[in-house]
Amino acid sequence: GTAMVSLSGLCGYVGRMEAYPNWNDTLVFNSFRGAYGENTHLIITYNKIWKVHTGIEGLKNNYGQKHYFADNDITATRYGIFWYFNAGAAQMRAFENTIFVSGSNVDGISINENTYGKAYYEIEYNTIKVGNNGSVQGGNVNGISANNVYAPKISCNHVELLTNHNDPKYTAIQLNTCNTATVTNNTVRSHH
Fold it and tell me: Where are the beta strands (DSSP E) in 14-97?
C-alpha cells in the first residue's frame, strides 16, 4: 500500500497534503510507496521513508499545484522521487534530500512528461546514491533522469553510481528530449 495519499479527482479542485515530522521523526517503513499525490499540493519535509518501492510519487498536477520535497531520507528499490504528467504545475521542487535506490532498474529522481508543457522542475542540492545490488547484468541505473521535460533545472546535486562495472546504461544525469535544460555544478562519483 501507500503510507500517505492525497487525491483530488475533480478538475479545478485541488487537494493539499503536508507531512512534517513529529518530535521523534516521521517514519514510513516497508511500504510500496511512502507518499502519493495526484492533482494536489504536496509538501513532504524531514521524513524518513525507508524500504519502499517508490519514495514519493506525484502526477497530474496540472492546475498550478506545487510539490516541495525537502530534507527527506529515502531508501527505495525503484524510485526515490517519481514525477510524471505534471505540465501546468506551478513548481515541482526536490531540495536537499538524501536518496538511496538499489535494484536492477532504478532512478534516484525521475521526471517524465508527455508534452513540453511547463511544470517548473527544480532538482537542487540532493545527495543521490543509486546501484544495481552488485549484479553484473541489470537494467538502467540513473541518478536523475528527465524525459520530454521543458526547461528542468538540475543543479548542485551529488550523484554516486554504485555499480561494479562500466556500462552505458548507468548514468548520473540523463536528459532525453528535454528543451532548454539547465544542468550546473553537479558532482558525480562512480565506483567502476
Answer: 15-19, 26-29, 33-38, 40-45, 47-59, 66-70, 73-84, 91-95
Burial of residue 37, with CB atoms counted within 10 A of its CB: 0-12 exposed, 13-18 middle, 19 or more buried: buried
Cα–Cα distance measured from residue 21 to residue 17, given in angstroms and rounded to the nearest whole number: 13
- Phi and psi torsions of 23, nearest 5°: -65, -20
Instruction: Give the separation between CA 89 and CA 117, rounded to whole angstroms.
Output: 9
The CA radius of gyration of the chain, in Å to the nearest whole number, is 16
Q: What is the pLDDT of residues 64-87, one digit of tens each?
A: 888 999 999 999 999 999 999 988
Q: What is the pLDDT of residue 174?
A: 92
> Measured between alpha carbons, how far is 4 from 26 in angstroms, rounded to an integer?
11
- Length in residues, the chain: 192
Please answer whether residues 150 and 177 qualify as being in contact, where contact means their C-beta atoms are separated by less than 8 angstroms: no
User: How distant is the alpha carbon of residue 158 from its chain centre?
Assistant: 14
What pLDDT score does 128 carry? 98
